[in-house]
Every structure is written in structure tokens, then in C-alpha cells.
TrEMBL record:
Assigned EC number: 2.3.2.26
Family matches, as Pfam families: HECT
Name recorded for this polypeptide: Probable E3 ubiquitin-protein ligase HECTD2
Residue span of region Disordered: 1-50
Length: 747
């Protein structure tokens, strides 16, 4: 038997394990009538190229020849060569390949049960393939000296003429039917050799055996993708497991080719090479579904074959993302296609735009409602009613912030404005950044006791100490939510599993009895926080001796709380159950779950509800945990050369001597001083999504005495620099300025 692969539905894009859409609903055949007819040479082939179809076996060459006339006819109808961008909206109006239902919760659906076996092919007489991989490679070597491609050409013509020939050539046992996810039964080395050789063959060979690396073959490629996308669910189950066994190079080639196919269909350089967009609206949904299979396969491998960012399609940054989002929101239960059904292809920069605009719209709606309420009560409108106004004292930062946020809970989705009592600064964004920075620094201090800093992993984790009030954990969640909502990056060092818990589930459940912030955790997750303990548990799992005698452990663990050692049973009667070779996996799983879920449940639940009280949005369903971390924290990696390239100047030119001095000094700074400079000028030492270019950093000329220190306007990411006459003087003044930068005032 084989394990089932959970392939979620397109409507639940953030579903575990990988957020990949399910291509078909379980137990149902694809709704093929919604697509163009499947081309087949078999007169009685009612199911086209489906595996297991009865009737005459179609030939691959006849499949290509049947599709090609349609392609040529489409080309003849196309307009002259000029750059024409398709009306993307028309694509959305076409029905997708199958009935997709968007779901608000992450519901994992099994692709097939462990007993599923592939349908048995009808018996047919298979040709005898006498040429082996060695014979083929020898023929290729002979070409180098003779220049005669006839033997190689004949091999391609014969092998790819029909499916029986393909089976005879590439199946390890041409007569055997496969029924395992572990082995596809294909001689992959031979297939790869034939494929790689094809790249260097003459055009007449490539024409009959297209590799789909240029637009002239995209009509055939689209039909091939459609065949894969509309396979039954059991076949997808096998494909996913076979895909994950590909080499990294082959796997990445498949992904890149599919992404290129989508990009060129959206924005063709030569529109005449494609059929009209209204005739091939199923192309992109087909490609997206095949990408979903590859994405699922990638996430089943640890570590993944390629990075999740390799599935991003940057072309989508240039389409109407909000239309995509609204289509997904408003027509989720209909047949309309949206890229939001397949969020793994949307870049983090594009997702940030969706979240920002969704947040802005919510802010506008809340502010409008406040204004309407005032007018309806015949009260004079006040501009302050449009903002979440925070008035805090630096000396009582945490308590004042908690009081303000508690009193103004209804205003959390308004634009944030901060005022420090006793200071004259006006908040155009800079004071808000300062408030976040100081508050986070104070809350996460070890003396505060809310979080424990683990030196080995350089991250914070929730303290398991029990208390009567968890409101401050809720405050931290609200802070993170406000940061995302107001596009502020925070210097918070949580492990990746924290963000996985934060999206469990991504939408607050309507039933308050449903636990939140609980997710499946492993020793790998524990290693991100407590690497030494995780290493010990891994040794327990791999120990070859007698675990019970050598470790002498029970299903009971101990924790220190305020100097008192407390014991906890991992299961009922755990103190009397010894850990043995037979139950050690259960022990490790229960211990890991206790540390990362159960022991901190109340703390994390308060944190979860705080975050979602601000960021309650379906847009969160588009995000992976890693992407939430980037939105909250930005990137700690500073690229000052990228900042130099994107910097704008006011009163200076980049060739001026003062500017040359500045960059010589800054590029020579150690990392800590570079971070101080970034914090001095922007209010944060983290790099936002999109990189340094998104900072819109500006250096302005300050026509004052060179005895003055530099001045920064963090609201506008602007540095005002006097025209210092020497590099030494500039360096000295700059270091003094960035090292003493706390506090705000009005000029």
C-alpha cells in the first residue's frame, strides 16, 4: 500500500502541506465538456488519451498532426505582428477545467487512499524494442564523426510514433503495469539521454519531437498540459510521487518552462503565434494545475527540490492583482479562474500589494463609518476620528500602550498615529516606527519574563510560566498585526514554526471552542528553538541499544517555573510508562507537541487573537508561514550597494565630493553601524519586502554649517547632509549622529 498525498482544493490556497490546489474532487471524473474536445486518432476513443481507455491506441504523431492544423488555422486568423496585450479580464470569464470550490478553512483532502491501484491497460501487442541506451549513445557518437543523423532520426521517428513504441522503448518491463508510487517503471536514464540529445539534433527532428521551449509549439504543449490536468485523481497521486523523484535540475526545468508558458500567454511578444485569447482561455488554468502537482511534490521532499520562491512568476506583478483577489473573493464558488487559487505562483512582493490595498480599503471603510456615525448623531466631525491615536509616555511605554489599545479596540483598523507625551514631533510615520521599536525592545527583554531568549538559536520563544492575565501576549499579537497593517517592519526574532502556528488556522474560526495556534510539529521545528534538546531526542530515536535501560525515561517531563520544578505527564499515567524502543517515536512526538503547543497554549492563543484582531483578512490565506515572517520582520540582510544604486539626491549629484565621501564611509562601516544608519534614516534597521529600492532613500543637501550633525526625516526616509569638506569630518559627524538618534523634535 502507499500513503495518500493531501492535495488541497484550489479554493483553499494556503492549505497544508504546501498550499497546492486539488485538481479534481475525489471520486469524480473531470468535467471534460467544459474544455475543447480532446484530440484523438482512435475512432472509438471516447476518453481521448486517458490511460485505460478502451479502443484503438492513439499515436503520438497523429496527436501532433491533429493539433497542428488548428494551430495553423489560428495563426492565419491572427493579426499582424505588433505588441498586443490580451484583455486579461476575458480570461477570467471562461470556465476552468474542473469545478473548484473555494473554502475558507484549510481542509486537507486525500488524493487517493492507500489501496488505490492504477487501472490496468488493455492488452495489446507491443513492438520489440531492440535498441538500448548504450546503442542509442553509440549512434549519437557516430554522428560526431560522420555527420549522418539517419540512425538517430529513425529512432525518434519510430519510438515517438505511437504509445506502444514509447512503452517498448522506455518502460523497464514493457508488459508490466505499474502500481506503486515508489517506481514509475520507466528507464529515466534512457529518457534523459534521448531528451538531452534532442536539443542538438537538426530542426527536422525537433519539429516532429517538440520540446516546447518556444512559442511555435505552445499549442501542442497546451493540449499536453490539459491531458495531465484532467487525469483522474488516482493518476495525480502517482504523478506527484514520481515528480518528487526527479533530479533537481529536471524538476526546475519543468517548473521554469511552465512559468514561461504562463508569462508568454499573458503577455505575448508575437500575438500572431497564438490562437485568440477567447479560444484558449483554458491554457493558463491547465498550466496552473500542473504546477500545483509539482508544488505538492516539492513540498513532500525534505529538503525541497527547489526553493518555494522558484515557483514565483514575476510576470503576475504586472497584472491587475486586486481584480484577481476580488475574483477569488466574490466568485470563489463559480467557474471563474483566479491566480489567487494558486498562491504559490504569486511573489511575496505581489502579495504585499494585495494585503496593503486590502488593508487600505478596510481603513477607508472604517473611517467612513466613523464619519457617518458622527454626522448621524449631529456631532461635528474631527480629523482625529479617522486615526488610531496613541498617546504614550516613554517612561510608561508598555502600560500606556496596553491601556490605549484596550480602550480603542474598535479603532485598530484605522491608520495609526503616535504621540510621545512631552515631545513636539508630528507623526508622519517616523514616530510610529520609533514606538514599535522601543515597545518591542522592552517587551522582549529577558527581565520582562514574557519571552525566553535561546542563545543557541538566536530566537525568542514564549515563556511557559502560568499567569492570571495574558493581555500582554495579546498586545504583542496586536503589535505584529498593526505592523503588517501599517507596512512597518519589526525586529522580532521568532522561529519559523511561530508563523506556522499563527496561520493555524489563517482565519479565526467562528466556533470559539475550536483550538487556535495548534499545528503539527516535528523535531525539526524544535531544533529551530532548542537545538541541543532536539539533538538529544534525535539520538534517542536513532539509538541502537536498549532505550529503556540506557535512557531510563518515562512519559513525564519536568519544567522550572519561578525556581520551582514542576512535572507534567505527556499522557495519562505517563510517570509510570517507560520509554522503550517500541514507543520512543510516540514519546518524542508528545514531548515536542508539549513544548511547542500545549505548554504555551494560553500564551499563544492570546497572541493569535491579538494578531488576527487587526489582520483578519482572507488575504492571509495566500501566505506561507515564511512569507508572513518576511512581511512582519523584513530581511536582516543589508545590501548597501543596492541602497547606493537606488538613492535619490536633492541638492546633490551623485558625483559630488560629499556624496563620494559618504558612500566610501558607509560601505566601509561594520554591520552594526550600517544598521544604525538605516534606523537613523528610516526608523527601522530591517529591509522591507522588495529590498532596499523600496525604501525610496533620499539624501538632501543641508545648507548649514559643517559643524552641524546630519539630520534625518524618518517619515520620508530622508537624510539631510551638510556639505562636509573632508571624509574624516563626515565620518565623525555621521557616527555621532546615528549613535545618538532616539527622540524627535520639530525644526
Amino acid at each position: 500500500s502507499s500513503p495518500s498525498v493531501p492535495i488541497p482544493s484550489p479554493g483553499s490556497p494556503a492549505l497544508p502541506p504546501c498550499g497546492s490546489p486539488l485538481l479534481e474532487r475525489k471520486g469524480k471524473e473531470p468535467e471534460r465538456e467544459k474544455l475543447p474536445p480532446i484530440v484523438s486518432a482512435g475512432a472509438g476513443a471516447t476518453a481521448g488519451l486517458d490511460r485505460g481507455a478502451k479502443g484503438q491506441i492513439s499515436t503520438f504523431s497523429s496527436f501532433i498532426s491533429a493539433v497542428s492544423p488548428k494551430k495553423e488555422a489560428a495563426e492565419n486568423r491572427s493579426s499582424p505582428a505588433h505588441l498586443v496585450f490580451p484583455n486579461i479580464k476575458n480570461v477570467r470569464d471562461q470556465p476552468p477545467i474542473s469545478l473548484d470550490v473555494r473554502q475558507k478553512q484549510r481542509i486537507s483532502m486525500d488524493a487517493s487512499s492507500s489501496e488505490v491501484k492504477a487501472p490496468v491497460l488493455p492488452e495489446c501487442i507491443l513492438p520489440i524494442q531492440t535498441k538500448t541506451m548504450k546503442d542509442f549513445q553509440e549512434d549519437v557518437e557516430k554522428v560526431k564523426s560522420s555527420g549522418d543523423w539517419k540512425a538517430v532520426h529513425d529512432f525518434y521517428l519510430t519510438t515517438f510514433d505511437s504509445f506502444p513504441e514509447l512503452n517498448a522503448a522506455f518502460k523497464k518491463d514493457a508488459t508490466a503495469s505499474f502500481n506503486t508510487i515508489e517506481d514509475s517503471g520507466i528507464n529515466t536514464k534512457f529518457v534523459n539521454a534521448v531528451y538531452d540529445t534532442l536539443i542538438n539534433t537538426p530542426q527536422d527532428i525537433q519539429k516532429t519531437n517538440p520540446q516546447f521551449n518556444n512559442t511555435s509549439t505552445y499549442v501542442i504543449y497546451a493540449h499536453l498540459l490539459r491531458q495531465i490536468a484532467t487525469l483522474v485523481e488516482a493518476d495525480h497521486h502517482f504523478l506527484v510521487h514520481w515528480f518528487k523523484k526527479l533530479s533537481q535540475k529536471r524538476f526546475k526545468q519543468l517548473v521554469e518552462r511552465l512559468l514561461q508558458f504562463i508569462s508568454l500567454r499573458l503577455f505575448p511578444a508575437k500575438p500572431e503565434e497564438f490562437p485568440p485569447i477567447t479560444k484558449c482561455s483554458w491554457w493558463i488554468p491547465s498550466a496552473a494545475k500542473v504546477l500545483a502537482l509539482l508544488n505538492t511534490a516539492n513540498n513532500l521532499v525534505h529538503p525541497p527540490l527547489i526553493l518555494y520562491t522558484d515557483f514565483y512568476n514575476s510576470t503576475l506583478d504586472h497584472i491587475d492583482l486586486m481584480e484577481e483577489y476580488h475574483t477569488w473573493q466574490n466568485f470563489g464558488n463559480s467557474h471563474r479562474f483566479s491566480f489567487c487559487q494558486y498562491p504559490f505562483v504569486i511573489s511575496i512582493a505581489a502579495k504585499k500589494i494585495i494585503i496593503q490595498r486590502d488593508s487600505e480599503q478596510q481603513m477607508i471603510n472604517i473611517a467612513r463609518q466613523s464619519l457617518v456615525d458622527k454626522v448621524s448623531r449631529r456631532q461635528r466631525p474631527d480629523m482625529n476620528m479617522l486615526f488610531l491615536n496613541m498617546k504614550v509616555r516613554r517612561t510608561h511605554l508598555v502600560s500606556d500602550s496596553l491601556d490605549e489599545l484596550t480602550r480603542k479596540r474598535a479603532d485598530l483598523k484605522k491608520k495609526l498615529k503616535v504621540t510621545f507625551v512631552g515631545e513636539a514631533g508630528l507623526d508622519m510615520g517616523g514616530l510610529t516606527k520609533e514606538w514599535f521599536l522601543l515597545l518591542i525592545r522592552q517587551i522582549f527583554h529577558p527581565d520582562y519574563g514574557m519571552f525566553t531568549y535561546h542563545k543557541d538559536s538566536h530566537c525568542h520563544w514564549f515563556s511557559s510560566f502560568k499567569c492570571d492575565n495574558y493581555s500582554e501576549f495579546r498586545l504583542v499579537g496586536i503589535l505584529m498585526g498593526l505592523a503588517v497593517y501599517n507596512s512597518i517592519t519589526l525586529d522580532i526574532r521568532f522561529p519559523p514554526c511561530c508563523y506556522k502556528k499563527l496561520l493555524s488556522p489563517p482565519i479565526i474560526p467562528s466556533d470559539q471552542n475550536i483550538p487556535v495556534g495548534i499545528c503539527s510539529v516535528t523535531v525539526d521545528d524544535l531544533c529551530q528553538i532548542m537545538p541541543e534538546l532536539a539533538h538529544g531526542l534525535s539520538e534517542l530515536l536513532s539509538h541502537e541499544g536498549n532505550v529503556e535501560e540506557d535512557f531510563y525515561s518515562t512519559f513525564q517531563v519536568f519544567q522550572e517555573e519561578f525556581g520551582i520544578i514542576k512535572s507534567y505527564n505527556l499522557k495519562p499515567g505517563g510517570d509510570k510508562i517507560s520509554v522503550t524502543n517500541q514507543n520512543r517515536k510516540e514519546y518524542v512526538q508528545l514531548y515536542t507537541d508539549f513544548l511547542l503547543n500545549k505548554s504555551i497554549y494560553k500564551q499563544f492563543a492570546a497572541f493569535y487573537y491579538g494578531f488576527h484582531s487587526v489582520c483578519a483578512s482572507n488575504a492571509l490565506m495566500l501566505l506561507r508561514p515564511e512569507e508572513v515572517e518576511i512581511l512582519v520582520c523584513g530581511s536582516p540582510d543589508l545590501d548597501m550597494y543596492a541602497l547606493q544604486r537606488s538613492t535619490q539626491y536633492d541638492g546633490y549629484a551623485k558625483t559630488d565630493l560629499t556624496i563620494k565621501y559618504f558612500w566610501d564611509v558607509v560601505l566601509g562601516f561594520p554591520l552594526d553601524l550600517q544598521k544604525k544608519l538605516l534606523h537613523f534614516t528610516t526608523g527601522s534597521d530591517r529591509v522591507p519586502v522588495g529590498g532596499m529600492a523600496d525604501l525610496n532613500f533620499k539624501i538632501s543637501k543641508n545648507e548649514t554649517s559643517t559643524n552641524w550633525l546630519p539630520v534625518a526625516h524618518t517619515c520620508f526616509n530622508q537624510l539631510c547632509l551638510p556639505p562636509y569638506k573632508s571624509k574624516k569630518d563626515l565620518k565623525q559627524k555621521l557616527i555621532i549622529g546615528i549613535s545618538n538618534s532616539e527622540g524627535f523634535g520639530l525644526e
